[in-house]
Specification:
3-stranded antiparallel beta sheet, alpha+beta, 7 strands, Immunoglobulin-like, 4-stranded antiparallel beta sheet, 2 helices
Length: 173
């Protein structure tokens, strides 16, 4: 939850460019063993935030505004990039209800809206839908930035009840 909460804050602040040009998060490491907001614990072990912060601070990121349906791309590189974007809106049962892709050119240090979804199309379906977006630039797998977003908070999602099937195997001696 710590990593997810900070992801929302970091992406939102980076998306508010030029009012804000980013963010720093406080308390990088702990001075004593405790439960805290640090990203590295007292013993030097990385918490999930430390692993995911690398994604949040990439030079090229995405942001999706669930209320307006706008997708925003941010290029913090000092060179223009040419990329491909993919957008998929997927129901929890796996059905792809919307798909779009295209080519994109981002100028150096640019924030730009890629596309806007007609959110009225998804009205009434927000509780069981996920939005997956990615931008692929360059030739290597690390030159990809992806974002998974929901239209509603986690507590309001219509998730299937979890089931667990256990099968015991006995060995006779």
């Amino acid at each position: 939850m710590q990593a997810y909460g900070l992801e929302i804050a970091i992406r939102a602040q980076r998306c508010s460019k030029p009012k804000s040009f980013g963010t720093l998060y406080w308390q990088f490491n702990d001075a004593w063993p405790s439960i805290s907001w640090s990203s590295i614990d007292y013993y030097g072990r990385w918490k999930p935030l430390q692993f995911l912060a690398k994604q949040y601070f990439k030079d090229i990121i995405l942001f999706f505004h669930p209320n307006s349906g706008k997708f925003v791309a941010i290029n913090d590189k000092l060179v223009e990039i040419k990329a491909k974007y993919n957008i998929e809106v997927i129901r929890f049962d796996g059905l792809v209800v919307y798909q779009d892709s295209g080519l994109l050119s981002l100028k150096p240090n640019e924030k730009r809206e890629i596309r806007a979804l007609d959110t009225a199309y998804f009205a009434g379906k927000e509780n069981n839908t996920v939005v997956y977006t990615e931008i692929i630039y360059g030739e290597h797998e690390e030159n990809k930035t992806a974002l998974t977003t929901y239209f509603r908070p986690f507590k309001d999602l219509e998730l299937e009840p979890a089931t667990l099937n256990v099968k015991y195997l006995y060995e006779s001696n």
